[in-house]
Amino acid sequence: MKNYNKYRGLSCYNLLIRPHRIKTWNLKMYWHKTPYWLKALYPGLSWHKSRNRKTLYLTFDDGPIPIVTEYVLEQLHQHDAKATFFCVGDNIAKHPHVFQKVIEQGHSIGNHTFNHINGWQTEDEMYCQNIAQCQKRIDQSYQRNLRPLFRPPYGKITRRQARHLKKYYEIIMWDVLSGDFDTDLDHEICLEKTISATRNGSIVVFHDSFKAEKTLRYCLPKFLSYFNERGYSFDAL
Ligand SMILES: [Zn+2]
Q1: What is the arithmetic mean of pLDDT over 141-153?
Q2: Structural domain boundaries of the chain?
Q3: What span, in angstroms and rounded, lies between the C-alpha atoms of 125 and 5?
Q4: 4-13: per-residue pLDDT in tens?
Q5: Averaged pLDDT for residues 167-186
Q6: What's the average model confidence in pLDDT over 98-106?
Q7: CA atoms within 13 A of residue 15's CA, in its CB half-sphere
Q8: Residues with Cβ < 8 Å from 158, sequence gap 6 or more?
Q9: Contacts of 231 (CB under 8 A, 6+ apart)
Q10: 152 to each of 74, 123, 189, how far by Cα in Å?
């Protein structure tokens, strides 16, 4: 069998020291719009694309799953939009037919680890192996000429993990977080905050998960229509 760790350059055996932990920063809160200083802390990661074009990059994390991912696909199709799905390897294994649908409809696929693990709480070697396991699953059905995409679950990745992984992956963060996962957030406020934080080239995070489903069903079609009417297009990364 192919050694995918080696294949992706992800043999982290030289990284045996535990990663730095940022213990004081517990993400109970979050920003709809990513602050500039956070972007500056992690140079070399992608936070947004060109500000010169009216193009937006929607991303959907944590799928693929039946019903919710299929709902997202339908909405994207209706609005002539392409997007990027950051998939959890375990979900791909459980729902290969949904994964196949995402690919067939021309969207991009990114790696979101096999088990949705937190980089701050995982040893470097184990973290990279989990990512390689997910990439192996992705590569069985999806071909990409560009570098593979990776997004750390919870956005939690140590600077050292990022330094290593960015040699092999384009690490995609975001400049707009919809907050669709926040079940305490009013749907209309979620929509307003997401729209007002979005501008040319924004990378926007939504979730194709059961937790986010209710908010997503309210916000996504309105978000797509709002920017469609204003001449924006939606591209895959
Ligand atoms: Zn996630």
Answers
A1: 96
A2: 4-234
A3: 10
A4: 343 343 333 2
A5: 95
A6: 98
A7: 23
A8: 19, 20, 21, 119, 120, 124
A9: 54
A10: 26, 14, 26
Domain 4-234, classified CATH 3.30.300.30, yes or no: no
The helix/strand/coil state of 18 is coil
Task: Name the average pLDDT for the chain.
Answer: 89
Rounded distance, CA 111 to CA 132, Å? 9
Residues 6+ apart with CB under 8 A from 233: 54, 55, 56, 80, 81
- Rounded to a whole number of angstroms, the distance between the first and last alpha carbons of the chain is 30
4, 132 Cβ separation under 8 angstroms = yes
217 Cα: distance to centroid of ligand 1 (angstroms): 18
Q: How far is the CA of 227 from the centre of ligand 1 (A)?
A: 25
Give me the phi and psi of 155, to 5 degrees please.
Answer: 65, 15
In the prediction, which pLDDT does 14 show? Answer: 29
- From ligand 1's centre to the CA of 127, what distance in Å? 15
The SS3 call for residue 12 is: coil
173 CA to middle of ligand 1, Å? 11
Residues 50 and 175: beta-carbon distance below 8 Å: no
The proportion of the chain whose per-residue pLDDT surpasses 70, expressed as a percent, equals 88
